[in-house]
Structures are given as structure tokens and as C-alpha cells.
Amino acid sequence: MNEPLIAPSILSADFARLGEEVDNVLAAGADMVHFDVMDNHYVPNLTIGPMVCEALRKHGVTAPIDVHLMVKPVDDLIQMFIDAGASYITFHPEASEHIDRSLQMVREAGLKTGLVFNPATPLHYMDYVMDKIDMILLMSVNPGFGGQSFIPGTLDKLREARRKIDASGRNIRLEVDGGVKEDNIGEIAAAGADTFVAGSAIFKKDDYSRIITDMRERIAEARSA
Ligand SMILES: O=C(CO)[C@@H](O)[C@H](O)COP(=O)(O)O
User: Fold this and answer.
1) If 141 and its partner were Cys, which of 45, 55, 148, 155 is the partner (CB 3.0–4.6 Å)?
2) One digit per residue, pLDDT tens: the chain, 225 residues?
3) For residue 33, which of 95, 83, 81 has the smallest C-alpha distance?
4) Which candidate, 53, 71, 44, places its Cα nearest to that of 10?
5) Cα 165 to the center of its chain, rounded Å
6) Residue 150 alpha carbon to ligand 1 centre in Å
7) What is one Pfam family matched by this protein (predicted)?
8) Which position among 31, 66, 177, 194 bears the catalytic label?
9) In Å, how far are 99, 218, 225 from 105, measured between CA atoms?
């Protein structure tokens, strides 16, 4: 099992102080920055684009930036985020006309890539591209907004995704996003996730270090049980 990674979603950060917020959450022990891109078309919200990713790099952020594209179509923005300094680029299979080609674009640029599955999206989209993905992201809420409740059926879906990853023999990260909190992160880890996106659970707290440490402890407890 991969070492667990905590990826705060900057969707819940104070955008007026974004550089400082990202510095603070990384100094508090976060492993990477989860960067939610929404187009008010594929999802009913509008957020940030490649200029903000580039600005974070210019600000001095060296940690991995995990770009989650909630846009349709995806290919133009993939290229822009490659140029802007993304580390991971994940997208929804329904948002690409040519999933294999979109994955290939990211890989040829030397970045890590992956597919994102909404709560009702079946996992079979990954079946013929397992050799081209580094991450599978299961949405545990319907995408578009922070602060929603974790959909419990995601736990079974995580177990199913974990079986597929293990059967592939490849080192693919299993990320979960939506409603991840300190009181459910243990069972999410036990279901097979190794990469944990949390927005409001971290950014709505005063002490980022305490919540990230608490999350790590609960993951470790779940793994040793
Ligand atoms: O992509 C999304 C929502 O579409 C997420 O990354 C949210 O930003 C997670 O927020 P919390 O549920 O952790 O508050």
C-alpha cells in the first residue's frame, strides 16, 4: 500500500490570501495541493484556471499540484495546465471524446494522470487504460461544491477500485474527494484509499497542523487494525 497523502482542496481556502493559505497548509504537513477547476458547464460552479496554478508556482510552491478538471471538453485545458506547472492532471471520462488520447497528452508531457469517477459513474471506464493511469479519483459527493456530505456507497466503490488496482499489478493511487473528515477518514482508508482530499475539514479549522496530524493518526490506526 502506498504511503498516505493528504491533499487539501483549495476550493475551501480564502481566495483573497491564496498564496499564504497554500504556504500555511503545506507548512502544516499537507503533501500536495488539490486544485479544483470548474467550468460552470460540466459542473454548476466556476472556479480557477491555469493562471492561478502558474501564479502559485511563481509564488514559490514546489509541492505537487493535483489538478482536478471538472470541465468539458478537457483537451485544451490539459495543455494549459501542463504549461502552468501542474503535477497531476485528472479528468472525468465523460468529459473527453477520446480518453486514451487525453491521458496520453498528459503522460507525454511527463506529468501524472488519472480518471475521476462521479458517484454514479461506473468504474469500467478504467478497464482498457490501466497501463496509462497513475491515479483513480473517486468522488464521494457530486462535484461542484465543497462542504457536502460523504456518500456512504463510496466505501464499496473504493473496495471495488482497490481490487481492480491490485489485480492490475500497477502502482496506481486511489484518491477520494468529498466530505472527507477526521471522523470518517479511518473507514475511508480501511476501504482502500491512499490519497485523501479534504477541503472544508481543513480550511475551516484554525489549526491546520492539528487536523492534518489527527487525520494521519486515524489513517495509521485504520491501517494497523
Ligand atoms: O471537487 C470537489 C467538489 O466538487 C472537492 O474537492 C471539494 O472541494 C471537497 O470539499 P469538502 O467536501 O472536503 O469540503
Assistant:
1) 148
2) 899 999 999 999 999 999 999 999 999 999 999 999 999 999 999 999 999 999 999 999 999 999 999 999 999 999 999 999 999 999 999 999 999 999 999 999 999 999 999 999 999 999 999 999 999 999 999 999 999 999 999 999 999 999 999 999 999 999 999 999 999 999 999 999 999 999 999 999 999 999 999 999 999 999 998
3) 81
4) 53
5) 17
6) 10
7) Ribul_P_3_epim
8) 177
9) 10, 37, 40
Residue that has been written with the C-alpha cell 486544485 in this structure: 35
Give the residues surrounding ligand 1 with Cβ less than 6 Å away. 9, 11-12, 34, 36, 68, 141, 143-148, 177-180, 197-201
Q: Report, in angstroms and rounded to the nearest whole number, the Rg of the chain calculated over CA atoms.
A: 16
Amino acid at 211: I
Residue with the three cell numbers 471538472: 70
Minimum CA distance residue for ligand 1 atom 8:
146
Question: How many C-beta atoms lie closer than 10 Å to residue 51's C-beta?
Answer: 10
Residue 31 CB contacts under 8 Å (≥ 6 apart), including other chains: 5, 6, 7, 63, 64
